[in-house]
Amino acid sequence: MAVTLEPDRGVYPDSIGAVTVEEAMPVSATNSKIIYSALKQCGVRLVSALPETWLVHLIRLADEDPEMTLVRLAKEEEGVGISAGAHFAGVKSAMLMQNHGFLAAINGIVSFAHLYKIPLLMLISYRGTFGERDPWQTQGGNVTEPLLRALCIPYSFLNSSDSVEQRIHQAQTLAESSLQPVALLLTRELMWEE
Amino acid sequence: MLRIDCLRSIYADLENCLVVTIMGAVAAELQSLGHRPNFFYLQHAMGLASSTGLGLALSLPHQKIVVLDGDGSLLMNLGSLSTMARYAPKNLVHVVFDNESLLSVGGFPTATAAGTDLEGVARASGVPRTATLRSVDTFQRSVADAIAAHELSTIIAKVEAAGPAVYVTDLALLENRFQFARHIQSLKSQSLPAPRSGALSSRRGNQQPET
Question: What is the CATH number assigned to the segment(s) A26-191?
Answer without folding.
Answer: 3.40.50.970
